[in-house]
Design brief:
- The structure is a single chain.
- With 258 residues, this protein is mainly alpha-helical.
- The chain has two domains: 11-76, Arc Repressor Mutant, subunit A (Orthogonal Bundle), CATH 1.10.10.10; 81-256, Four Helix Bundle (Hemerythrin (Met), subunit A) (Up-down Bundle), CATH 1.20.120.
- The protein has twelve helices and two strands.
- Strands 1-2 form a two-stranded antiparallel sheet.
Length: 258
Amino acid sequence: MPAQRIRQPRVAELVASRLRDDILTGRLKEGDVLPSQESLFAEFGVSPPAVREAIHILESDGLISVRRGNVGGAVVHLPSADRTAQMISMVLQTRAATPGDVSEALLHLEPICAGMCAAREDRMSEVVPHLQAAIDVQTEQFDTPSRYVPNARRFHEAVVSRCGNEPMILLIGSLEVIWTAHESSVWSDERHPGDPMEPKTMRAALRDHRRLLEAIIDGNSARATRLAQDHLAVARRNTLAAGNDKTIEAKLISSHER
């Protein structure tokens, strides 16, 4: 059998790989600016075109953004659920997936996170304060209906982000970002002038959140999972009844970034 020819990486790919490692290992942090191209030429001992291509590779990866003008430079961006959600939403849109598909996935997955939150031994310090803070904001701004949906969504996002498992936080958190963008679009003032949601629906949702928090405080994983399932089923039904676009719209993610 003839030996397969192994492609040698280009110089630009090697430079990009080194810089990528610096970002992913934390040597370069969110918001840092890469050294000037002149400094990179000297550091790596490569040609200017190779450095420019390496920067373009990192920009395509979403790990940097290049600013032009007097305050120019390549700014570092760490990978995040928001950026992962942007890519996932584009893939889902090409596959004609609907918001209903995303909410159905969350209906199965988010309750697992709720159960995991309740099972954490450190839940009183690492979970409960974050969920309580989200509920406090919901309560304080209850009479401002336009704030209710984003505040309620932050509670759901906190359930996922505090479950304690990083792969689940990233993957399920990305779906949360996609659903949040859709739900916010459905209940926006443009589509639903005036009060975006019935007060009785808002009260019921807040009550569900409080009950779920109590189950997590008690460490009752089974009850937390069941309460999350029941609550999500109702919330999903209300939003899909109000608006269910034919497919996921990736543009909603970028327009919804907070």
